[in-house]
């Protein structure tokens, strides 16, 4: 048993060699080390010392968790005819991009290594946004699989049977997303694939699955909040999670460039400190400081009422376009945000809400 453990550790440590000096600016939009992580199951370590050889996946090893996302991107791009040859237009890029931001800002508690700490609240919540869609993609045959095992840590589920018991709604929502994705060609038929069609045929289902992983996963990792380094970081994390529903209702496009643009504009590149709440932090941009002010001052006690109003405001594509602009403008100019609010309200009144088939 001891020799098996040693072998596994060595496999995880040396099976993926990353030459940091080989990274150039052209890769800066991609998550850190994207071009060096596994892109298929057969690139994960092979454990041979058993009756049935298998690939070993450790989602608490950053290159492996990022590799799960890379596989998902690779197997889904062909179902998205609007995607470029580089995959950058794939709407699932919000998932690895978020992990990359968490890694770069040390929110995974990697502390200069590639190993993700199970004490990290961000990493623990992200677990259900990585392993769940991967397992579903395997189950429905999107990923052509060979035998694999996922390293178990604490009570995190590692196979479909466990996850269906632990976080059933997320499993169902990701199944529905991939089902719709495989049938997406019939959604737009011979019509031109416009942003409106992408909103209807792809983004609505993707956001439903995304939300389910986060909202159903958060109660399972609540104890990890105690390990966050400051009250401000805790407020930021919970605030981001609570406002996720508002973002999802706008069906914001989550391709690589849109995701990175918004991350760089609104998300802090480091974990927050006590001083970040009361003053403008000089090492953070004005837009990041302003977005933090919005999060810290938001009336979460009124969130239910706001969500009810927002649901009406985003009931059609015409309203959703301006609702996206509202969210981006809130950290830049209240006057500009109000301007977009007026436009969204007018469009909600002028145009009919989506039919049930569009939702």
Report on this structure.
This protein is mainly α. It is built from 15 helices and three strands. It has a three-stranded mixed sheet, covered by helices on one side. The protein is globular, with a radius of gyration of 21 Å. The protein starts with a helix and ends in a 9-residue tail after the last helix. Residues 1-26 have low confidence and may be disordered.
Largest sheet: 3 strands, mixed
Regarding quaternary structure, what we see is single chain
The overall pLDDT, averaged over residues, is 89
In helices, the fraction of residues equals: 40-55%
**Rg, nearest Å:** 21 Å
Task: Estimate the strand proportion.
Answer: under 5%
Find the count of extended strands (DSSP E, 2+ residues).
Answer: 3
Order of helices and strands: HEEHHHEHHHHHHHHHHH
What count of helical segments does DSSP give?
A: 15
Overall 3D shape = globular
End-to-end span in angstroms? Answer: 52 Å
Structural class: mainly alpha
Strand order of the largest sheet: 1-2-3
Please mark out the parts with pLDDT under 50 across 5 or more consecutive residues, or reply none: 1-26
């Amino acid at each position: 048993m001891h020799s098996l453990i040693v072998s596994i550790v060595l496999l995880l440590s040396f099976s993926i060699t990353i030459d940091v000096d080989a990274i150039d600016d052209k890769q800066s939009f991609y998550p850190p080390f994207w071009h060096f992580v596994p892109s298929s199951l057969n690139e994960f370590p092979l454990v041979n010392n058993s009756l049935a050889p298998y690939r070993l996946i450790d989602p608490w090893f950053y290159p492996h968790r990022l590799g799960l996302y890379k596989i998902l991107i690779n197997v889904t791009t062909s179902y998205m005819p609007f995607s470029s040859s580089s995959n950058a237009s794939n709407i699932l890029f919000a998932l690895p991009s978020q992990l990359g931001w968490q890694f770069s800002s040390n929110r995974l508690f990697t502390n200069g290594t590639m190993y993700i700490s199970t004490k990290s609240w961000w990493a623990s919540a992200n677990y259900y946004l990585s392993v769940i869609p991967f397992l579903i993609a395997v189950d429905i045959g999107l990923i052509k699989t060979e035998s694999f095992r996922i390293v178990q840590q604490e009570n995190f589920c590692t196979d479909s049977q466990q996850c269906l018991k632990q976080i059933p709604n997320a499993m169902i929502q990701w199944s529905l997303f991939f089902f719709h994705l495989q049938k997406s060609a019939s959604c737009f038929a011979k019509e031109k694939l416009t942003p409106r069609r992408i909103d209807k045929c792809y983004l609505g289902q993707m956001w439903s699955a995304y939300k389910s992983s986060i909202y159903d996963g958060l109660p399972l990792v609540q104890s990890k909040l105690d390990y966050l380094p400051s009250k401000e970081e805790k407020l930021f994390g919970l605030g981001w999670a609570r406002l996720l529903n508002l973002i999802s209702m706008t069906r914001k496009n989550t391709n690589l460039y849109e995701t990175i643009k918004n991350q760089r504009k609104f998300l802090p590149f480091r974990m927050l400190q006590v001083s970040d709440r009361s003053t403008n932090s000089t090492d953070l941009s004005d837009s990041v400081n302003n977005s933090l002010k919005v999060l810290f001052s938001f009336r979460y006690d009124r969130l239910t009422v706001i969500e009810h109003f927002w649901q009406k405001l985003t009931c059609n594509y015409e309203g959703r376009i301006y609702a996206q602009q509202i969210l981006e403008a809130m950290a830049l100019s209240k006057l500009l945000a109000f301007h977009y609010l007026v436009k969204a309200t007018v469009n909600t009144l002028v145009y009919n809400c989506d039919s049930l088939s569009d939702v």
